[in-house]
Prior knowledge:
Blueprint: H1 10-16, E1 37-40, E2 46-49, E3 53-54, E4 62-63, E5 71-75, E6 82-86, E7 92-98, E8 107-111, E9 116-119, H2 121-126, E10 131-138, H3 141-149, E11 154-162, H4 171-175, E12 182-190, H5 196-206, E13 214-215, E14 218-219, E15 225-229, H6 232-247, E16 255-258, E17 263-264, H7 272-276
Parallel strand pairs: 15-16
Antiparallel strand pairs: 1-2, 1-9, 3-4, 4-8, 5-6, 6-7, 7-8, 10-12, 10-15, 11-12, 11-17, 13-14
The structure holds zinc ion (ZN).
Amino acid sequence: MKKELKTLTKEEHKVIREKGTEQPFSGEYDNFTKAGIYLCKQCSTPLFLSEHKFNSHCGWPSFDDEIESAIKRQPDIDGKRVEILCNSCDAHLGHVFIGEEMTTKNLRHCVNSISMQFVSQKDYQENQPTVDKAYFAGGCFWGVEYLMKQQNGVINVVSGYMGGEIENPAYEQVCSSTSGHLEVVEISYQKNKISFEALAKLFFEIHDPTQSNGQGPDLGEQYTSAVFTSDADEQQTIKKLIQILTVKKYDVVTQIRPLSQFWKAEDYHQDYYTKSGKQPYCHSYQKKF
Ligand SMILES: [Zn+2]
């Protein structure tokens, strides 16, 4: 995922982009011992842990280790020192010195305070976007996958099978209606950007929840309309939406079923419309809420 870059102040720009150096003993984290994580100021990637920090008395925050793969090294333009940069966004951090024997690791990342943002472990975890999964069966998974993928907050959609008897079914088995599986999409979404309810509404609006023998021209059990719910909250949400639709005279046949094993479908079913460049024949959006 591409990281968003923060807009920098003039002072930050001078160090982070123009490779400047802040005055010694002036930075926010020079004399600073709180427990937590030091992030890149520009892209928020974690760079150092407070466990890596030690007092070198040099006037800049010093670390004798780094978070794996977070730091990039390159020869400094002065021809002598080794510059360190954020490995994700190339923000200038400072320099690394080896062999000074200040700590047992024998290494000192000498970093400008202004290139970093400190956060406590707790704040860091609370601000991480939590990813949840939702499972919908709305007819041919090609179309449901295609339309769900366009939603903001949806990270990934996988076409697959759920609700049947046999392990790892093949498409042919699902089509023959002998396996009992439905065509299902697995949606990974960021809860802070889109809710389960918003996804469920969209699900009802991109397929016909009143058709019982299939979906559009696709007839057969595998195209049954269903939501596979993982908890009581999701169940309640679907019941509520069905009630709203019922009031609006939709005779909804969508099943509410408990979550079961999801089997990813064959590769040629994934991203079908994107790969083929066609438009979905089976699904389109129709406002219902
Ligand atoms: Zn960065």
